Amino acid sequence: MADKDELDLRQGNPGRAWYVIHTYSGYENKVKANLERLIHTAGMKDMIFNVVVPVEDEVEIKDGKQKVVPRKVFPGYVLVDMIVDEHSWYVVRNTTGVTGFVGSEKHPIPLTDAEAARILGGKVTETAKDTAVNEGDYVRVKSGMLENYTGKVVSVDTEKERVVVQVEGRDVDLDFDQVEHL
């Protein structure tokens, strides 16, 4: 058994904070469910407040159709909003699928407020935008008044995510998500 100083986890980490736990790969959602169940059965509602598997919505294009799918931002990791003490540490650490806390084994390191806000804020990333069209490409308009018309890309503004397409002899300013590559 470890000595009391090793298990006094409030030392250096007073109060509530977000911690990162490492899980077996692919077990993130099972760990979340197990932890949420344990919060209730072990009476930890006053110590463990939230369990999050960070995901981003990503647009996949399959068979010419766009589909939004959630993608784990940090595979193998789960975020836990908690106050660390000997009992809460033990409950989380011994949850099925958890391999440990990020930081030293006995003294987990909390995320800074800025890190937690950035991770939990979550931004939508779209693979379609990463592979945006280029000048000279031919595209089909997917929505709006010119839906199903085709045209040639005249200019691309990646910052504003806009594209100018020449359709029927006139230049039309459109959003990236209004066009698809032919």
How would you portray this structure in words?
The protein is α+β, with helices and mostly antiparallel strands and 182 residues long. It folds into two domains: 4-127, NusG, N-terminal domain (Alpha-Beta Plaits, 2-Layer Sandwich), CATH 3.30.70; 132-181, Roll (SH3 type barrels). 21% of the residues lie in helices and 38% in strands. It has helices spanning 4-7, 28-41, 86-93, 113-121, 127-130, and strands spanning 16-23, 48-52, 55-62, 65-72, 77-83, 98-101, 125-126, 138-141, 150-157, 162-167, 170-175, 179-181. Strands 11-10-9-8-12 form a five-stranded antiparallel β-sheet, with no helix packed on it. The protein has a four-stranded antiparallel β-sheet with strand order 2-5-1-6, with helices on one face. The longest helix is centred in the N-terminal third of the chain and has 14 residues, at 28-41.
- What separation lies between the terminal Cα atoms? 66 Å
Widest beta sheet: strand line-up: 11-10-9-8-12
Low-confidence stretches: 1-13, 122-131
What CATH architecture of the largest domain do you see?
2-Layer Sandwich
Choose one word for the global shape.
Answer: elongated
Largest sheet: 5 strands, antiparallel
Report the structural category.
Answer: alpha+beta
CATH topology call of the largest domain: Alpha-Beta Plaits
Number of helical regions: 5
Rg value: 24 Å
Average of the residue pLDDT scores: 81
The CATH first-level class of the largest domain comes to Alpha Beta
Number of spatially distinct domains: 2
CATH superfamily of the largest domain: NusG, N-terminal domain
Strand element count: 12
Elements, N to C (H/E): HEHEEEEHEHEHEEEEE
- Which bin fits the share of residues in helices? 10-25%
